[in-house]
Amino acid sequence: MVQEHKNGTDAVIHIELKIYTMKTNLIWSAVIAVVASVGTFYGLSQWTTADQGPEVRIQKVDQVAAQQALYQVNPDGDLVPVDFEKTAAQVMPATVYIQSKIRQERPQMQNMDPFRRFFERDGSPFFRQQPQQPREPQYGMGSGSGVIINEEGYIVTNHHVIDNAEEIEVTLSDNRKYKARLVGSDETTDLALLEIEADQLTALPLVNSDQVNVGQWVMAVGNPFNLTATVTAGIVSATARNININRNKFAIESFIQTDAAINRGNSGGALVNLQGGLIGINTALMSPTGTYSGYGFAIPSNIVSKVIEDLLEFGTVQRGYLGVQIRNVDGALARELDLDRPEGVYIDSVMQGSAAEEAGLLAEDVVTAIDDAEILTTPELQERVARYRPGDEIQLEILREGQVLTLPVTLKGAYDAESLAAVASPELSKLGIDIRDLTEEEKGQLNINGGAVIENIRGGIIRNNTQMMEGFVVMSINQETIRTAEDFQEKLTSTQGGILVEGRYLDRPGQYYYGFGLDS
Fold first, then answer.
1. How far is the C-alpha of 458 from the C-alpha of 268, rounded, in Å?
2. CA distance 87 to 277
3. DSSP for 183-229, written as a single string
4. Where in the chain is the domain with CATH 2.30.42.10?
5. DSSP for 222-249, written as a single string
6. Distance, CA of 247 to CA of 252 (rounded, Å)
7. Which of 94, 164, 195, 483 falls 20 to 30 Å from 442 in CA-CA distance?
8. What is the pLDDT of residues 474-487, one digit of tens each?
9. Which residues, other chains included, contact 75 with Cβ-Cβ below 8 Å and sequence gap of 6+?
């Protein structure tokens, strides 16, 4: 506070001393800690004496030079200012806004009248079981974010952003709008791949997420609360984090954790480093209120890259499996096993007929590395194995009774060791399903010789026009026997118009019939 003096000159000197002291304090603050912002003094033009007392005339300027407040160490070891502006300008054009039209209510009974002429015959039990017309479906709108990863129009988002969607619309940063095609999605990793037909697109490169370190600066870009093109910044708080948010039994969770603000609507958006490289897809937040209050989570780019490659090549994700029950090695278990450190993944049990059993893995083994990559926790093991397909060979380093062993393991599929577990085709993509062969155990359970299992149902003809559920075993199409997933695909390819499928479920009694048209 400026004290009042009779002598005007003394008053000026007093104020100037205050300014000097404040500037000195600012300099020391910059040395001791990072300064959020600093004020810039342009000086006192002059004191004038008037009847009302002393007045201060302040000089106004049109622009004040921004002062960098945050610093980081570059690869050469030099301190350089953190530049969020350049990164934001690079990333925002590659981040899109996604709106999806979602069916909220499905008809209780399906209407087969449009296809009756294809299947009508005397004594058909199918048509006697259709007592009423379907109710009009109700629709809702969902929204989220996506990232352009290819200039030809491929966009990555979360599975939960487009799940059950009948229509998907993408809005670019320049407000252009396009209808999107669902290339494929994977519930186990919560990722989906879309495609739009557009030109002059900006794409983000995927970088090696193995090189992401705790403490490094990151930016999250997305559309929280329908506020398009929103940028937040923070640091990486943890890697290989599992929060058990994905309830799929084959779920992979090995998230990058960040304190950059992530809210509803950020799902599917970009998490980037300060060079503008995509290190993850924002997916979840941990909050007692449902909005940001601490941490967000992103799927690492190495998992994203594997899922994209599979969806483009096969239409579904091809994952290799070890076939083991595992848990982290904690302090108590480390003492029990006489380990030097509580690190690694403990094998509780090995499944019969699995890749792990065939490779010679045993219960109580501790996995410490895969292909020379150190494994400290179960999420790290799951993430590393998820990068491979059935038939790929990996090298496992294990501890067994104090000895270090290296075992080659040829990974299997979740259901079939000999195949890629599913068939991909344009017809299946249109139906919105993934299929696979029955296992020998399932054939025995149903007492049948073969069939094709509907493994996943996404947005498409099946979901929109029938009440079919996952786990349905197709035994015939238009009264022709189906033994394998390949039979199913061949029949679809050679059929036009109406389709009548007959089959059973793995977990319920009775015979079921579903009808639909390929042109629905």
1. 18
2. 9
3. EEEETTTTEEEEE---SS---PPB--GGG--TT-EEEEEE-GGG--S
4. 324-410, 426-517
5. E-GGG--SEEEEEEEEEEEE-------T
6. 10
7. 164
8. 999 988 999 998 88
9. none
Q: How many CB atoms lie within 10 A of CB 334?
A: 17
Q: Can you tell me the distance from the alpha carbon of 241 to that of 121, in angstroms, rounded to the nearest whole number?
A: 58
**Any idea how long the chain is?**
520
Please state, rounded to an integer, the average pLDDT across all residues of the chain. Answer: 78
Distance, CA of 170 to CA of 259 (rounded, Å): 27
Residues in Cβ contact with 282 at an 8 Å cutoff, skipping those fewer than 6 apart: 145, 220, 222, 262, 266, 267, 268, 269, 270, 271, 296, 297, 298
Q: Is 267 a catalytic residue?
A: yes
CA angle 220-223-228, nearest 5°?
115
Strand partners, 194: 155, 182
Mean pLDDT over 290-296 rounds to 72
From 100, 143, 185, 190, active-site residue: 190
In degrees rounded to 5, what are phi and psi of residue 142? Answer: -115, 160
Residues of the chain with CATH 2.40.10.120: 79-107+135-316
Asked if 190 is an active-site residue, the reply is yes
Beta strands 295-300 and 255-258, pairing class:
antiparallel
Task: Locate 21 and state its tokens.
Answer: 């002291």
Instruction: Please answer whether residues 321 and 385 qualify as being in contact, where contact means their C-beta atoms are separated by less than 8 angstroms.
Output: yes
DSSP class of residue 410 equals E
Query: Long-range contacts for 240-248 (Cβ within 8 Å, ≥24 apart)?
Result: 240/376, 240/377, 240/379, 240/380, 240/383, 241/297, 241/379, 242/377, 242/378, 242/379, 243/284, 243/286, 243/297, 245/284, 245/297, 246/187, 246/188, 246/190, 248/187, 248/188
Q: How far apart are CA 200 and CA 153, in angstroms?
A: 10
- Per CATH, the homologous superfamily of domain 324-410 is PDZ domain (2.30.42.10)
User: pLDDT grade, residue 375 (50/70/90)?
Assistant: very high
pLDDT grade, residue 46 (50/70/90)? very low
What's residue 426's pLDDT? Answer: 61
Q: Are strands 498-505 and 508-517 parallel, antiparallel or unpaired?
A: antiparallel
Catalytic residue among 100, 185, 254, 267: 267
Residue owning tokens 């879309």: 194
CA distance 339 to 335: 6
What's the confidence (pLDDT) of residue 315?
Answer: 79
Give percent above pLDDT 70 in the chain.
73
Q: Is 340 helix (H, G, I), strand (E, B) or coil?
A: coil
The CATH number that domain 79-107+135-316 falls under is 2.40.10.120
**Domain made up of 426-517: CATH architecture:** Roll (2.30)
Q: And the tokens for 480? A: 């022709």
